[in-house]
Amino acid sequence: MTRFLAAAALAALALLAGASAASAMQIEKIVSPSGIEAWLVREQSAPLVALNFAFHGGSTQDEPEKSGTANLAADLLDEGAGDLDGKTYHERLENHAIELSFQVARDYFHGALRTLNEHRDEAFDLLRIALSAPHFDADAVERVRGQTLSALQRDSTNPNSLASNRWWETAFPGHPYGRESKGVLETVPRITADDMRDYVRRAFARNELTISIVGDIDAKTAGALIDRAFAGLPAKNDLKPVANASPSGLGRRIVINLDVPQAVVNFGGQGLARNDPDFIAGYIVNHILAGGTFSSRLYKEVREKRGLAYGVSDSLVWFRRAAVLFGTTATRADRTADALGIVEAETKRMAANGPTADELAAAKSFLKGSYALSLDTSGKIAAQLTQIQIDNLGIDYIQRRGGLIDAVSIEDARRVAKRLYSGGMLVTVAGRPIGLTSSGTE
């Protein structure tokens, strides 16, 4: 009960601190005594600290025949480290209401930590040993491997997973972006403890480390905590290069036969890099077409007018070496062709004519107003600051963002709509869609 109450208090304090910090949002660039840079938001309304960090080098660093290595390593970092076995490590986290998590994306390894101030030394020590001295003990490896394989086995008959995996495999054949970060049933059994140690050795380093801290803490103390967790890591990483890539298969439709009541549809094509001068205009235009809100054109046409699907959306997705537009929907097998036809028709209409002035004004208002929802807790603020640093947007981006949105003219929006939606789409469908078959070049 004590641990439960502590965790509940931590969550409540995090919400309070985040809301207050978001309203002020004074971001400092700090440098630790060992020379590690970070961004800090001081928030004194609650006695907690939220840390978010990222190492360059995610699942793109996996060997093709051992895909899933980075993901498996992330799941095992807290299963024993330093002089603590897995049980003791978890007890230390729970007894002090410390929240610690790791996640692997294609380009980055992400970590997040939240702790009450009174336990911050313990929290940063636990993070340090997880990053620098994980055990990867045989019993823990096999237990977590079994959990991963069970999830992958379920995915092998899941229409959402099948449609998504086939889309990425086809869009990026032979490229690391085409591989599932979790690995596949054939590769996960091949991963050894030494493979995971090698990944940690090559990726966890100080030279491409991004750090954000939000909480009741000053710059000197934050710098000391940063060094406590990260200063002992190697100075330089040792990553394999990743080639630039563009999505392939545009114009193809791939149907994966699966006996399920609904068909899942994934669709997409070339996107915009985050540093592209047209990105903000593309972001607004895509929100108008299919940004996941009730006001988007696809939502109105597919769901509201015809009731063909519960939801339909797409988004701009950007990596270090590629950028895509990726969307999804699900509908009845006998209406899949209708739903997909509407998606394709509306996309072509947007490419040809762009948005209306009223749509542009409404989208700008929504995108500026809703941004605060991504900054309503200390953890969310820290995560946003890390992403802003990764994208090299500048420490004043949060203040400039509204002006960047306002600066997009109707002429900009219509020009970028043509650029974004004229290149054709790759479509994957998992299910038994009536009237749809695979088409396009194999």
Structure write-up:
This protein has 442 residues and is of the alpha+beta class. It has 15 helices and 13 strands. It has helices at residues 2-24, 69-76, 86-95, 120-132, 138-155, 159-171, 193-203, 219-230, 279-290, 297-304, 336-353, 357-370, 378-390, 397-406, 410-421, and strands at residues 27-31, 37-42, 48-56, 80-81, 84-85, 99-104, 108-116, 209-215, 253-257, 262-270, 309-318, 323-332, 426-431. A 6-stranded mixed sheet has the order 1-2-8-3-7-6, sandwiched between helices. Strands 9-13-10-12-11 form a 5-stranded mixed sheet, with helices on both faces. A hairpin with a 3-residue loop joins strand 6 and strand 7 (108-116). Helix 1 (2-24) crosses helix 13, helix 2 (69-76) crosses helix 7 and helix 10 (297-304) runs antiparallel to helix 11.
Characteristic key phrases:
single chain; 442 residues; alpha+beta; 6-stranded mixed beta sheet; 5-stranded mixed beta sheet; 15 helices; globular; disordered N terminus
Uncertain runs are 1-5, 14-21
- Strand order, sheet with most strands: 1-2-8-3-7-6
Q: Secondary-structure element sequence?
A: HEEEHEEHEEHHHHEHEEHHEEHHHHHE
Q: Main sheet?
A: 6 strands, mixed
Q: Report the radius of gyration as a whole number of Å.
A: 23 Å
Residues in β-strands, percent: 15-25%
Count of distinct strands: 13
Shape: globular
Number of helices: 15
Estimate percent helicity.
40-55%
- Overall mean pLDDT: 94
Quaternary structure classification: single chain
The N- to C-terminal Cα distance equals 59 Å
Provide the structure class: alpha+beta
